[in-house]
Amino acid sequence: MDPLALAALAVAVAAIVVALVLARRPGGEVQRLADRLAESQAALAGRLAQMAEQSAAAQAATAERLAAQERTLATTVEQRLARLSQVVGETLDRNAQAAAGTLGDLKARLAVIDAAQGKITELSTQVVALQDVLSNKQARGAFGEVQLEALVSSILPPSAYAFQAPIGAGRRVDCLLRLPNPPGAIAIDAKFPLESWHGLRNAGDDAARQQAARAFAAAILLHVRAIAEKYIVPGETAESALMFLPSEAVYAELHARFPEVVERSYQARVWIVSPTTLMATLNTVRAVLKDVRMREQAGLVQKEVRLLLEDVARLDERVGRLQRHFEQSIDDVRQIRISTDKVTRRGERVGELEVEDSAALAGDPGPPPLPPAG
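User: That's the sequence. What structure does it adopt?
Assistant: Structure tokens below.
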């Protein structure tokens, strides 16, 4: 409630109380009390007026402070809203840039994925083509021959091998390594029993795997015997031949699970090789051929060394003669220096004789004559 209203209410209550009190007192005393009451009311009215002014001033100051605070608050709120808007805008810009960069990276990765998918598709096509090649015996043999040809031609010189070379009675071998005796020419066969290998890999249960393993071992041994019979020709080839498996997986499986097959191939003098082991074998063959060529050229090297020694001896003889010529030239120069010294001394004596003749004409006997030069 307003303080002025409370003060007015208090004055009214006081007036009522005074009126009730006066009603019980005599007249003179009532007059005095009325006068006092009037004075009190006037003083109270003055105070009420002063309080009203102070209250109005306080309300005005409060209103002004509230208005100033409201303006300050509004300014602060606007500034904070502006900063918040700026921060939000910068954040949105950064997020937009990051999103754009992420989209760019995503597009690049999608492009890479598309390219990889294209390569995978191409590779799958090539794998299907390779499967078609390997499913055909003739094509599979051609595939092994191509791989064998690439390995041999990349390591050995052309004079050290021949492809589809005739051997024995009307037979041809995939590759023939021409080595000197011993050991002699070595035949390499590039065909391999892939059907039995696929049967072994695709076997479902233990019984099927055992049966496929027996079939695979039998196929390998049958091929080993065929190579030994056809490509080991006494007097024409070496006592052994090579069976080329163009698959490291088949080679590893054979040596890991079928050691008895490998042992029987050794007994038949047919060495089973993979691309890696064949490369090592060919490097050994190249070293052997190099050593053979070195031995063939040893006589020529010795002849050239003898001729070189003869040339060195002749050079030493000619250097000796040249040294003697130099020594003779040095002696001749020494003799020339002796002669020039004599000529110089004789010239000096001739000059002294001319001086003596001039002195004799003048009556001066002059110095005695010099002894003759040696």
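The longest strand covers residues 161-167.
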